[in-house]
Structure formats: C-alpha cells, structure tokens
Amino acid sequence: xxxxxxxxxxxxASRDAIDPVFLATPLYRCDALxxxxxxxxxxxxxxxxxxxxxxxxxxxxxxxxxxxxxxxAVVCASAGNLGQxxxxxxxxxGLDVTVAASCFAPTVKLDRIRSVGAHLELVDGDFEMARExxxxxxxQRGVRLVEDSxxxxxxxxxxxxxxxxxxxxxxxxxxxVALGGGAMATGVGHVLKALAPGVExxxxxxxxxxxxxxxxxxxxVVTTDSTHTIADGVAGRYPIPVVLDDLLQVIDDAVxxxxxxxVTGMRLLLEHAGLVVEPSAALGIAAILEDPDRxxxxxxxxxxxxxxxxxxxxRRWVGW
Amino acid sequence: xxxxxxxxxxxxASRDAIDPVFLATPLYRCDALxxxxxxxxxxxxxxxxxxxxxxxxxxxxxxxxxxxxxxxAVVCASAGNLGQxxxxxxxxxGLDVTVAASCFAPTVKLDRIRSVGAHLELVDGDFEMARExxxxxxxQRGVRLVEDSxxxxxxxxxxxxxxxxxxxxxxxxxxxVALGGGAMATGVGHVLKALAPGVExxxxxxxxxxxxxxxxxxxxVVTTDSTHTIADGVAGRYPIPVVLDDLLQVIDDAVxxxxxxxVTGMRLLLEHAGLVVEPSAALGIAAILEDPDRxxxxxxxxxxxxxxxxxxxxRRWVGW
Lengths: 320, 320
Fold this sequence. Notes:
2 domains, globular, 14 helices, Rossmann fold, 17% strand, L-serine ammonia-lyase activity (chains A, B), alpha/beta, homodimer, lyase (chains A, B), TrpB-like_PALP (chains A, B), six-stranded mixed β-sheet
C-alpha cells in the first residue's frame, strides 16, 4: 500500500477541474525513433496545448480550488513553464497572478509568462532565488503561494498523465520521467505503482542538476551549490523533503544524463519524430542513449513534457 | 438538406472502426501564432500519431470494412501519406498492401511506406501516373483498389475530424482545409455544414496545383497538364467528378496560395507553434497570410494535416 501524499480517487476526480484541452494528450508509438534507439518508443506528448507543457494540468486544479476558496491573488516561482500555466489558468478564473523567475530563464518563457497576463518579477539569481522571492512576495503582499511539487495540486495534476498512460503500458515496459522538483515523478509514479506495478518508472535528471537524484539515492535531502545544464526546466538545487519521501516510494530508479546526450535526444526527436522540444523533454531519450542495453527490445514511454525553447539556442544545440 | 455521398450517422459510427490513437487529436489555441497573423488561431493537430497524418482515419475504416469482407490484398496510389496509412492499417488486419507512388515523392514518405511493410511500386511520373498504375495493378492482380476521395471510407474517416471540430467552433469562425483530391474537404465540410452551418469552410490549394479549386469555381471538372508546388500531398491534376459534386455543396470557398506563402506558413508554424509540418499542412496559414483582412479578428481553425517532410528540403525552405 502506497503511503504518499497522493490519493488515486482524488487524482481521478481532479480531471473534472482541468480544461480538457490539457487532458487525453497523444500517446503513440514512434517507430522511426524506436528504430534509432533499439527499442519500442512511445511518446506521450504534452506540448500540443495553449501553454506547451504539462504544467497546466496542475495549475488548472490549483486555481480551481483557490477560486472556490475565494482567493484573489497567487504567486509562484517558476523556471518558466509553471508561471505560464498559472497565468493561463489564473486569468480564466479571475485570479491576479505573479510569477517570480530567474532573469536567466529562456526569453521565450519569460515573454509567454507576460503574454498570459501574469506579473513577472525577475530575480538576479537562479530558480532557487526565485523560490525565495516568491515566498517573500506571498508574505509581504498577503497573497497565496503556489509551490511546485509541494502543493499537492501540482502533483495531482501531473498524476493525471499517469492515468492516461496506464491503458498503454504493461508489465516490463518502462516510463521515463523528467525529474526536477518531483511533481511529475511523484504524480505519475504514484499512479503507475498503484495501477501498473510491473512497469518500471525511471526518473531522469541532468548530471549538472542532480540534487533530487542524489537525494533519492541517499534517501535524504542532498542540496547542491549550483546547476550547470541547458535543461532549465529541471534545474533545482533544494529538494523538498516531503516530495523526496513520496519519490522514495513510487519510482524504481533515478538516473543522471550528460548534456551531450540531452542535445542528441533533442536532435533525434526533431529528425525522427518531427518534434521541437525543450531540453527537459529530451531527458528520457538521453537516458536511452546512455544505457541502450537496459532498454533494448523493451517498450519505453517517454513523456515529452514541454516545448518552450528559445529557437536560436535550439538551432545551435541541434546543429541546424 | 445536404445531398452528398456522406451521411452523418455513418460518419459517427465509423469512429468505432478507427484505432483511438488517430482520434480526438489536439485542438488548441496558439496565441503566439495568432499574434503574428492578426486573428485567433486554433490548431487541429493531425501529426501526433504513428503515421503523422490524418490519413489513417480513412484507412482504418477502409481496411476494417475490407477485412470484414474477406479481402486479402489492396492497392492504392499515394502521394505518400495515404500509402503509409494504408500500410499501417492493413498490416494490423492481415492485408497485403501495395502502394503506387511517384518516384518524385519525398524520400521520407517512400521510406515510411516501406517501413510499414507495404510493397512500393514506383512510377516514373507524377501522382496521376501513380493513380493509373494502381488501377492497372488492381485489374491485373485482382486486388482491391482503394482510391483516395472516391472511396467513401477515405472521406468518412476524414469527416471524423469535423465531428471533433464542432464543439470547438461557433458561428463566424472559419475552418481552413488543405485541398487535394477532396476527401478531407468533403468530409470535414459535410459535418460542419450539417452541424455548424455558420462556420465558413475555406479550402486552400497551391496556385501551382489548382485543378480542384478551378473545378469548384467553374462547377465542372477542370484538369491541368502539370503541377508545380512543394506541397506534394495535394498535387493532383484530375479531379474526381463525384467528389467535386460533393465539394460544391459543402464548402464556402476555395482559394489558391503562392509557394512563398506556403514556405512562410511553414516557418511561422515552426517558430510560433513549435511544429515541423509538411507543406500541405501550411496551406491554411498561407491563406491567412495572403488575405489577412478576410480573417482579421476572427477565430480561424487550421488543420495541420501531415508532418512527413524531408528534413533537408524543410531546412532549405524555412531558412534554418
């Protein structure tokens, strides 16, 4: 019996609060990509929606509950995608949304946060500094803080991906999940362990931003002093203890991948699946590239979690 | 009362024969793209499936009915996408599939037709020559011919896109449909005229492959001697009379667009929607680019019908 903060009935019910445009996303086999990787590859595509990432599953749920409670203003820290999703969801529910973000976040993400009507507060530091700023804003202005991975709605929203995966996976399959703060990993992991326990859930993090993976391996919070990765969406340094507790129950492994593998993963997704993705969304393919024997001949599902990427940087990375 | 070859109840029922991986595709607003075009743009994405085009909706239906009839072998002519889809659908139902195609079709399309297990017969001529070859093969070998746009299943399959659009459109909106042989246009058009008659259905064809548009305008079949377009998926010269008859009832307009607009459309879809599409899938955006006043301020839905494109050519076209 899983003892995480998540609950299957609650996850199932949460779908009613989420705009259908974010649900029932494509899940399909991509043989051209699988042929390159020596295994059967299925793609769970989370980029074909108005905010181009899975994050709105969680922000739809969070803002729905906050609006029900009469909350008028919210703030979050974001590497870029959560802020855009919270802005989108909040605007539709009349919430005033403020997003604290690193000034080093991709320009396209910052622009899109503004374009959905959120107030953007730039921080001269990394994502962890933005988290501190969001806490300060919440305290000083008396607005509600939405914290990714800690607020249960962000995990429950991501967990709805797991519900959609269950019918497409079977024992022996592996699901690759990008690991950052842990909302997607705990959410998807919880559902799979509950409903399809024979499926291996493998989290993937860049070697340049390994805090949660190191924490999972040592079964205690391990922080790092800095991050060095192009995968801006998963570059945290301070894992949240209760999220780690959940993660320890629901995933089978956490692996670290090199930057070169992430780049190759992005290029393979472009050339063999026709998908332009942000670096975090290529972590799964990177994991296959780094350990082909592990996945050889198996059916591997990779969640393409986001497509918000600066195109100039993208072209440079993939060599186009 | 519409008097086409299509029937709404039959279209609704046809969904049961189609693998769900091809149904309920994403339909979402893309504000970044709309901002570039001066209107609200929604994308109906038909590329996130195993064959990367809408064509499998029709081939699923066709092969399902043929298998029920005990048919063992089929042949079709294809510009590339139908053949891939027929191969995919046929293989799953134990059908032997032969595809006649132009040797000038994009290599990626020919490769993928082979990769799904179909026999490929290359013709030293254009798509119309491939159509002739398919007829000959059917006669000589006694195998069943599946003819795009003429076989009602290809239209009914495409019409299921229309069913999925109905809930997302309202009076005054416009739906842009790539026009080739006419299966998608008659299918989607029939459903929209039946269920959402206030929605404008606009077909878009390249000025370099205008046969069906000219036919629609003159209300009689007009053929052309040649085609000159990068939009290989819609480059026919001999419209089918009964398809034209249907088209005359269900669409509001047919417009022709220039090659430069198609290329710009592809680039905008890449840069503002993160989508790598084949030229035919950019026809709708090209139509907006060529007549922005017509669509200004309106909600325009464009069907992204295929993503099978040779990447070297693509890079050259979009200037990447």
